Automatic annotation (TrEMBL):
Presence of keyword Oxidoreductase: yes
Source organism (scientific name): Mytilinidion resinicola
Top-level taxon of origin: Eukaryota
Family recorded in the similarity comment: Belongs to the NmrA-type oxidoreductase family. Isoflavone reductase subfamily.
A GO molecular-function descriptor: oxidoreductase activity
PANTHER family in UniProt: NMRA-LIKE DOMAIN-CONTAINING PROTEIN-RELATED, NMRA-LIKE FAMILY PROTEIN
Keywords linked to the UniProt accession: NADP, Oxidoreductase
Chain ranges of the NAD(P)-binding domain: 12-140
Protein name: NAD(P)-binding protein
Length: 312
């Protein structure tokens, strides 16, 4: 049997790097086609690996994308950018996959479950919903199978100040609602390992749910105290209804400034439980032993945990 060939678009990004590392260590026969608009940014150790071939292709160059996708058994899209990239760019990549008869496409999601959200309810999730619909249409025509990996929030993101749950520089946690609502999380390295498993598992399609932990803001604060020996404050911000009002006001004040309102959007959909995952697929890939929040905190210092999203 020929080795699986895995095409990874957005090959210079963090998820792509983690997925590649996982594939190379756990599936030594797998071949990787790394697709990047700037392949010179790919670290030399990856670029020169015998199993890796890099291809220069912009998201809007079908011919170059097709060359890079030729012979692939699956394409993993690791794009992260504006709505045009996440929707039109992914559609062009899916079309190129279909033209090259790539049987499966793993969408650039790694998300909370965006399916219950209405369009506009969380603007960053709209392209994911459109890509899901596009893949379903193509799947009905028998052209390709769509795969969506869901994992709640990355653990690294929860500790970043921009998300709004905690400011580690001030040892301060912020609780909308009661503080007991659970947040669903998984560490990026574990999500990458699950995605590598999904990539070589030709039978995996549709939505797959993976989690490392579920913790409330109060529980996060307690773990922070236990691991770092510092008692943080927990500031009550108001009810979830008041969060809804704050979210709308922040968006309407500056709709183009994603950075000022994204944390409120994420907090509302997570704390309300609306985007919680269904039954988990962790057991399908038993080789991945996910870390919980406590283990994650112990891997970082108090000074570094808030910036852990930028480490890769
Ligand atoms: N659940 C969560 O908490 C969470 C948090 C963050 C991200 N995510 C998900 O993780 C995935 C990727 O995140 P990441 O952190 O790996 O992103 P990243 O490190 O920013 O990488 C993004 C990739 O997209 C490429 N890209 C950006 N604009 C492009 C364009 N116009 N044309 C072609 N390529 C372009 C970048 O290429 P260049 O190097 O050339 O710019 C890079 O390879 C996304 O699916 C995102 O939804 C989930």
């Amino acid at each position: 049997m020929s080795p699986p060939t895995i095409a990874i678009a957005g090959f210079t990004g963090k998820m792509a790097r983690l997925i590649t590392a996982s594939l190379l260590s756990t599936h030594p026969h797998a071949l990787i086609h790394g697709i990047a608009r700037s392949p010179e940014k790919v670290p030399a150790a990856i670029k020169t690996h015998k199993n890796v071939t890099t291809f220069a292709a912009s998201a809007t160059d079908p011919a170059a994308l097709r060359t890079a996708l030729r012979g692939a058994s699956v394409c993993i899209c690791c794009y992260l950018g504006d709505a045009a990239l996440m929707l039109d760019g992914q559609k062009q990549l899916i079309d190129a996959c279909i033209a090259e008869r790539v049987p499966r496409y793993i969408a650039s999601d790694w998300s909370l479950d965006f399916r219950p959200l209405a369009l506009g309810e969380h603007p960053a999730k709209d392209p994911m919903k459109h890509v899901q619909a596009y893949l379903e249409e193509k799947e009905r025509e028998g052209k390709i199978k769509g795969v969506h990996v869901l994992n709640g929030a990355f653990m690294e993101v929860v500790w970043a100040r921009f998300t709004g749950f905690v400011d580690v520089e001030r040892d301060a946690f912020f609780a909308w609602g009661t503080g007991d609502e659970k947040i669903e999380v998984a560490a990026m390295g574990d999500v990458a390992a699950w995605t590598a498993g999904v990539a070589v598992d030709g039978g995996a399609s549709g939505f797959l749910n993976f989690l490392g932990d579920r913790k409330s803001v109060k529980e996060l604060a307690k773990l922070y105290e236990d691991v770092y020996g510092v008692t943080p404050t927990i500031e009550n911000k108001g009810t979830l209804e008041e969060l809804e009002v704050a979210k709308k006001a922040a968006f309407e004040a500056d709709p183009g400034n994603y950075n000022v309102w994204r944390g409120l959007f994420y907090q509302l959909v997570m704390l309300s439980g609306k985007t919680n995952l269904g039954p988990l697929d962790n057991k399908r890939y038993p080789m991945v032993e996910p870390k919980n929040v406590e283990a994650f905190l112990k891997e970082h210092t108090k000074e570094s945990v808030g910036k852990s999203i930028f480490f890769f």
